[in-house]
Write a structure and sequence with these properties.
The complex is a heterodimer of chains A (about 170) and B (about 190).
Chain A: H1 3-8, E1 12-14, H2 16-33, E2 37-42, E3 47-52, H3 59-79, E4 88-92, E5 96-103, E6 107-114, H4 119-137, H5 153-166
Antiparallel strand pairs in A: 2-3, 2-6, 4-5, 5-6
Helix pairs in contact in A: 2-4
Chain B: E1 2-4, E2 9-17, H1 24-34, E3 44-47, E4 53-62, E5 70-77, H2 85-92, E6 97-103, H3 109-125, E7 135-140, H4 150-157, E8 164-166, H5 175-193
The chains are: A alpha+beta (about 170), B alpha/beta (about 190).
Bound molecules: guanosine-5'-diphosphate and magnesium ion (MG).
Magnesium ion binds near residues 24, 25, 53 and 77 of chain B.
């Protein structure tokens, strides 16, 4: 198989165990910091999971913005001669603050909290959570052939029907 | 592509590429208008004051479960202007399929080709090429008067003979068939490799 093909077929696969582990860790983070919301996403902009009290948060859109924002900053760091990306992005608003960190290469963690929560505390707990997440995610796989076994001709046909139905062809 | 086995979701990234003002944002706006709200996220647009795409547009399309899996498609546009080349590279990260939106106006042929070559250059840096990557080409603005013929556009731009569409994005002509075809091509490619 040529390298381009192989690369293109690579999917990042998150197992059920790892997903549950992530959810637990960000629930703990949310509880210990009193954050309004904690969002976990993949670095190409895919939402993974979210906990918190913000109603009607558009998770896919938030994940996409956070991840691309982080990539843009990483690119800036690179241009400025930084070997590793900036470790976090911090936005201070009138009502809420945003704290965005990378978790390894493949994931992004977003903590949303009210301005009266101490940043120092958020940083300490977030750092602990990131270390725990990094350990957990070491087994997240880029090459999991089994995970893609359902992508066969039958899947393609059913997808085609579903597209016709949902796009009202 | 991203697979979440706990939620049985499989997500893909599709990027609309092309020169500035060719109609990329208009494609997404039509798709967003046309879809049932339960199937899509908000449409996020990051514009400059002149209403041009500054960084990207984004929306997610979510289909019903297929063989237990929920397919999701993250749709992006890139800013076409030459000076946003770094923004384009960032948006291309992890792309699974591409729609090249060309402007059919005769005066825009140079920009179309420049943008397509810029795309190929970026893909090559990522270890891909238009020759094998899933992509389709959309000849947009077919309603305007001074448009290039399809034959000429095909000869100048579609050098790998991928699927092409003659579109009028504001009224949706060929917008959904473009989307459907790129999704199908992405899945076909995976099926071949699996
Ligand atoms: N006449 C005509 N105008 C179009 C068409 N598609 C887009 N436009 C217009 O072209 C302009 C640029 O479109 P936009 O989607 O913002 O371009 P982008 O830079 O590729 O995102 C807008 O004023 C659109 O309304 C088309 O098929 N026909
Ligand atoms: Mg645009």
């Amino acid at each position: 198989m040529d390298p381009a093909k192989e690369q293109n077929s690579q999917a990042l696969v998150l197992s059920e165990d790892i997903y549950n582990g992530i959810t637990e860790l960000i629930q703990d983070l949310s509880a210990s910091t009193g954050a309004k919301s904690v969002v976990f996403c993949e670095s190409n902009g895919y939402a993974v999971t979210q906990v918190g009290t913000i109603k009607g948060l558009d998770l896919p859109a938030i994940a996409s913005l956070a991840a691309n924002n982080f990539s843009a900053t990483a690119r800036m760091a690179d241009m400025l001669g930084e070997k590793s990306s900036f470790k976090y992005l911090y936005h201070e608003g009138d009502n809420i603050n945003l704290y965005i960190s990378n978790v390894g290469f493949d994931f992004i963690l977003l903590v949303i909290f009210e301005v009266d929560v101490a940043l120092g505390m958020v940083r300490i707990y977030t750092k602990k959570t990131i270390n725990a997440l990094a350990g957990l995610l070491q087994s997240a796989s880029h090459k999991d052939a089994q995970a893609k076994q359902f992508l066969d001709a039958e899947f393609k046909n059913l997808l085609s029907e579903e597209l016709n139905r949902s796009l009202n062809f | 592509m991203f697979i979440n086995r706990a939620l049985q979701e499989i997500s893909f990234k599709i990027v609309y590429y092309g020169p500035g003002l060719s109609g990329k944002t208009t494609n997404l706006e039509y798709i967003h208008r046309h879809l049932a709200p339960s199937m899509r996220s908000d449409l996020v647009t990051l514009n400059t004051r002149e209403e041009r795409t500054l960084y990207f547009d984004f929306m997610q399309l979510e289909l019903g479960r297929i063989k237990g899996q929920k397919p999701r498609f993250n749709l992006y546009t890139v800013p076409g202007q030459v000076y946003y080349r770094f923004s384009r590279k960032i948006i291309l990260k992890g792309v699974d399929g591409l729609v090249f939106v060309a402007d059919s106006q005769r005066s825009r042929m140079g920009e179309n080709l420049d943008s397509l070559l810029d795309l190929e250059r970026n893909l090559i840096e990522m270890g891909f090429s238009l020759e094998t990557f899933p992509w389709v080409i959309q000849y947009n603005k077919r309603d305007l008067r001074d448009v290039e013929t399809i034959e000429t556009m095909q000869a100048k731009l579609n050098f790998f003979g991928t699927a092409h569409f003659e579109a009028v994005a504001p009224n949706g002509t060929e917008v959904l068939s473009t989307l459907k075809t790129i999704i199908t091509n992405v899945i076909t490619k995976l099926e071949l490799v699996a």
